Write a sequence for this structure.
């Protein structure tokens, strides 16, 4: 047998023998192996909890980013209203990029969901095997000579070691997907956050400032208009005199 | 022979199927060497389908060791390569 099957099998076996190397005495191997299995099961449970938490956080973050994209549209409209087509265009460009990234985020969320399902299934299989190993271990201890026990333990530990390697891979992949999503969400955040965009040149930091100024000055104008409406045309500087 | 579909579970397969799996497996390795992900995935998918269709699923509480392990097709080329390296994709032994 050649090819990927034997190579993968060899990798898994090497991993398992590393796991069991340190114990020579069969009964020590049994207890040691069982202890490692319990640890791995705890790892998997933590891994599942981490992925669920990270996924929830990313979902919330994605919702906020959707709102930010809407905000960019508002900025564009505002800029256009003020006769600044250049600013409106820049805001719309940024919005488009952010939307593309958000679509990618949806795909990654689906990937993460799939990985999470695999991880949960792997946890269940491992839990079943750890329980089977626990009862097997007592039988082996009670019924077999040291030499026979060594062989049987080796088999059982390899069987369960494979499952541990599988769950390890499942955790690793779910974590990878989570990190990829976090990176993409951060990219969208950069696109929608004012003045922090690296892809834009320094003039675009200027652009952000101008947009902010535009918005601020319009707000001042509005306030002034409102005040004027309330006061008639009165003496606005009066109170500042004292 | 007992085959593990990595991340899915173990199956007992007939010798006749093993022959076909070995053929596909050779092609899969060649595809990995050639960095041809489409071909690699195609081979792995076919291996998985054959095992799932013709193999006999082992119970989850069966502690038998596998004679061969087939990686999943949804890994990237890079992930598959890392898996093939002894120090690669499979994470550290817990508690180390």
């Amino acid at each position: 047998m050649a090819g990927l099957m034997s190579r993968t099998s060899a990798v898994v076996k090497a991993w398992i023998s590393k796991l069991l190397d340190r114990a020579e005495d069969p009964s020590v191997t049994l207890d040691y192996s069982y202890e490692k299995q319990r640890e791995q099961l705890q790892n998997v449970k933590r891994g599942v909890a981490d992925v669920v938490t990270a996924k929830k956080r990313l979902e919330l973050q994605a919702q906020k980013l959707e709102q930010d994209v809407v905000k960019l549209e508002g900025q564009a409209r505002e800029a256009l209203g003020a006769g600044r087509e250049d600013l409106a265009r820049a805001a719309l460009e940024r919005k488009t990029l952010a939307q593309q990234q958000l679509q990618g985020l949806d795909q990654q969320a689906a990937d993460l969901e799939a990985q999470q399902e695999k991880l949960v299934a792997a946890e269940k299989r491992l839990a079943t095997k750890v329980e089977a190993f626990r009862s097997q271990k007592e039988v082996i201890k009670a019924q077999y000579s040291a030499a026979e026990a060594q062989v049987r333990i080796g088999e059982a530990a390899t069987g369960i070691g494979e499952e541990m390697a599988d769950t390890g891979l499942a955790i690793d992949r779910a974590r990878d997907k989570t990190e990829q999503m976090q990176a993409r969400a951060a990219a969208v955040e950069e696109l929608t956050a004012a003045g922090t965009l690296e892809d834009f040149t320094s003039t675009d930091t200027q652009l952000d400032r101008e947009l902010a100024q535009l918005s601020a000055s319009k707000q001042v104008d509005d306030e002034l208009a409102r005040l004027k409406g309330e006061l008639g045309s009165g003496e606005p500087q009066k109170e500042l005199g004292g | 022979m007992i085959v593990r579909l990595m991340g899915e579970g173990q199956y007992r397969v007939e010798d006749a199927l093993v022959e076909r799996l070995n053929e596909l497996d050779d092609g899969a390795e060649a595809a990995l060497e050639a960095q041809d992900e489409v071909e690699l995935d195609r081979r792995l998918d076919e291996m998985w389908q054959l095992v799932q269709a013709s193999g006999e699923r082992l119970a989850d509480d069966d502690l038998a060791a596998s004679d061969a392990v087939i990686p999943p097709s949804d890994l990237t080329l890079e992930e598959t390569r890392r898996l093939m390296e002894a120090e690669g994709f499979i994470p550290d032994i817990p508690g180390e």
Remarks:
- The helical segments of chain A are 4-20, 26-81, 85-143, 146-192, 202-231.
- The two ends of chain A are 96 Å apart (CA to CA).
- Residues 195-203, 234-242 of chain A have pLDDT under 50 and may be disordered.
